[in-house]
Each structure stands twice: as C-alpha cells, then as structure tokens.
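Internal tracking record. Fields below are filled automatically when a chain is submitted to the structure queue. Please do not edit lines marked as system-generated. If the sequence contains nonstandard residues, flag them in the REMARKS field before resubmitting.
Queue: standard
Priority: normal
Entity type: single polypeptide chain
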Amino acid sequence: MQTVIFHSTIFGPIHSRRLGTSLGINLMPDDGKICSFDCLYCEAGYNAQGPGTTGLPSRADVAGMLESKLSQMKAAGENLDVITFSGNGEPTLHQDFGGIIDDTIALRDKYFPGVKISVLTNATRLGRQSVARALAKVDNNILKLDSAIAETVEALDRPSAGYDLDRVMEQIASFGKSAIVQTMICRGEHDGKLIDNSTDAEVEALIEAYRRINPGEIMIYTIDRPTPEVKMQRVSRPELDAIAARITEATGISVQVSG
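SYSTEM-GENERATED OUTPUT FOLLOWS
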C-alpha cells in the first residue's frame, strides 16, 4: 500500500509545480494519515493505513519548528516563494488551525515578508467559522473541487459521510475572488468502476460550477507521483491545455495548468 511521504512537521523546501520554492507544513501525524477525503490518487496513500502513533503536532511545536527553519534559511540567504500547508491529510482538521495560521503569518512577516502563505484544503471544513476566517487571511486559499458531479466525487475523492457537494460549492463561492479552485484531472479504474473527470460531460459540469463559484483563479493538474490505486492514470499535457482553454473561453477565469 502507498504510505505517507511526509515524515516531519516542517519539510522542504521543495519545488512545487504550481507554487515555486515551497516550505511545507504538515499538521497531521508524521507516521500516519488523517483526512476527510480518501482519494484514489493521494500521494500520501489511503486512510486505511491509520493515524500512526505520533499524533498531531501542537500549535507551540509548529511555531517553534517553523521559526527555527525560517531563521536558518534567512541566515543562509536561501530563496523561498511560499509556505504551504499540505502533508499527510487535511490541514484544517487540526484543532488549532486558526491559531497556527496566525503564528505562521507573524513568522513570515518577521523572516520572509515577501513570501506567500498557501493552504491546500479539500474544502470539507468550510462550515466551521474558525476555519473560514483563517483561510480568508492567507495569500493562496486553494480549495479542491475535482468534479461538479456528485457520483464522481464519491468515486474519486471518497469523502467522509455528510459531504454535500452543493453546500461545499456555496461555501467556496463565499470567498469570492480570493478563492483559488484546484481540480485534479485524471482517469482510471477502481473496484471495476471506470472513473474519468476529463470527459466532455465532466468538463461542462465543472465549467458551470466555476461560473457559480467565480473564483479568482483555477488550477488544473494531473497525477505526478505513484497513487494508492494503481490503475489511476495521468492526463497528458496537451489534454490539460485543451481543457484549460475551454474553461477560460467559457468563464473568462484564468486557469493555471500543471502536468
């Protein structure tokens, strides 16, 4: 089984296809996975591997480790474009997510004031006001929407019980132009069921959703690393470019492509 790939709370810097030189923050355990999605393509593996034994890092520990790393990078004259919340699961599940965002902003301002703060979230916790307020403070509020067809979301992202696609789209739309919608485009098979969100019907549904949400930007990308479902496949760059052009023509919204 594909297993977690982030074995520390602060990791990198690494080169992100979408964001540049990125210092990562993993708010989940460093030896397990906790997420409200269980995506077939997740580079950190399935949730079935369990939450591990180390638990979630405390707010104080995150701040201490982040300050130590930023201080070292500043002293060494290293380059940094972005601080990114990602890792072994959904970062907004951390009970102190809002406070950690405040700490990160303060440390960014102290050591690298020109650097952006990004959060990669599956948008399942937007109904919590503390989460929504924290996301409104970051530079890149990157919110997942892999399909605007509920059946596809259930098959590809496998959300926890209670996920309501229409409600999530409304919550994403509430951020206005500060929202960045991120969509993974892929195809494959799982348990004998074909899954493909690159079809004409899927793209048309996404276009209608993007119009409804009206974000500041859209990011589409495809599989880049091994996936827990081995039958999932990346979509070619020409296909992604064609989908992006179609989206921009229909919505007038800028689309960033990674593939």
